[in-house]
Amino acid sequence: MSTEKELLSLRDQIDSIDKQILDLISNRASCAQRVAEVKTNAGADSTLFYRPEREAQVLRKIMDLNQGPLDDEEMARLFREIMSACLALEDPVKVAFLGPEGTFTQEAALKHFGHSAVTVPMSAIDEVFREVAAGSVSYGVVPVENSTEGVINHTLDNFMDSNIHICGEVVLRIHHHLLMSDVTKEDKISRIYSHAQSLAQCRKWLDANYPHAERVAVSSNAEAAKHVRGEWNAAAIAGETAAQLYSLKKLSEKIEDQPDNSTRFLIIGSHPVPESGDDKTSILVSMRNKPGALHDLLEPFHRMGIDLTRVETRPSKSGAWNYVFFIDFKGHASDELIQKALKDVGERATDLKILGSYPCGVL
């Protein structure tokens, strides 16, 4: 068979497969509509149309069944978008994020909920918490830690006074680019805008390439991208989303000092999440200020073989030199073993709050 005939045959096969994919997606969307009808007739809360544990189970199953040539993460990303579009037929998920538009937090929201979700920018982390608590949005997305710069304390502090649940997590690889606008004179750059965390994550690169440029910290990378559109001697450090949103050109790509630079984001909502089969739990614990307090806190987890993934300390609002501990560990709060550990911890602590059990990040 000639090359041209072989290509024509392959294209015919692709056209036929595309038709099958279209029909199957349409069938799936019709099922989603029927699910919405059943839930509505049963008087279900619209905020429960999105089921984090169910979505995590589906994506894990897809990755287990995947035989290539697309890798597991790419296949899961495609199915995430299909589920997002189908869910939008039931009831579009409204998600608040730390704005403005073009931030990494918005990118994390879209990675987790898909591009059919309605994302709503907020100017501060506490506003995201407030919107979720008020029911103005179904979920919120907030940053909690960066692999280079550590924990975001303001996010942890908001959990102290909130009854919001952690419903999920998403880890985003963070790539920073040096951006310029169409008015920027490349050889005259004397000022670089970015968020303080991003400036810190690119410190060595800036020292080597722009040692004399003024580094100006602003509220977000998206805000930095806005600044450079009107300044001929300025550049911004921001991500891909901000570059596209504000039509900026990349002077240099991936300038972060650590190539594996990542940020973990939390999904917050008003309802607890059932078990998904591979879960994580976050708790907040206040301990009495006495010798051995930390040992007393951690001993039950060690004795019962529970895997702690993170322990953070923050000053308590109840008095000087008192502290609260934020702890993440593997497993769901409904597990019998974990319930025993939490009972022991509760008897030793002055206060114990379960912030949420949620599926471990799939993507």
UniProtKB/TrEMBL annotation:
Task: Offer an example of a GO molecular function term for this protein.
Answer: prephenate dehydratase activity
Identify the residues that the record assigns to the Chorismate mutase domain, covering every copy. 1-94
Q: Where is this site: Essential for prephenate dehydratase activity?
A: T263
GO cellular component assignments: cytoplasm
- Supply the EC number(s): 4.2.1.51, 5.4.99.5
Alphabetized InterPro entries for the sequence = ACT-like_dom_sf (IPR045865), ACT_dom (IPR002912), Chor_mutase/pphenate_deHydtase (IPR008242), Chorismate_II_sf (IPR036263), CM_dom_sf (IPR036979), CM_II_prokaryot (IPR002701), G/b/e-P-prot_chorismate_mutase (IPR010957), Preph_deHydtase (IPR001086)
Pathway given for this chain reads: Metabolic intermediate biosynthesis; prephenate biosynthesis; prephenate from chorismate: step 1/1; Amino-acid biosynthesis; L-phenylalanine biosynthesis; phenylpyruvate from prephenate: step 1/1
Domain Prephenate dehydratase span(s) in chain numbering? 94-270
Alphabetical UniProt keywords: Amino-acid biosynthesis, Aromatic amino acid biosynthesis, Cytoplasm, Isomerase, Lyase, Multifunctional enzyme, Phenylalanine biosynthesis
> Which Pfam family, just one, is annotated for this protein?
PDT
- Write out the annotated subcellular location: Cytoplasm
Chief subcellular site?
Answer: cytoplasm
Q: State its role.
A: Catalyzes the Claisen rearrangement of chorismate to prephenate and the decarboxylation/dehydration of prephenate to phenylpyruvate.
What NCBIfam families has UniProt attached to this entry? Answer: CM_P2, PRK11898.1
* Protein name, UniProt field: Bifunctional chorismate mutase/prephenate dehydratase
Organism this protein belongs to: Litoribrevibacter albus
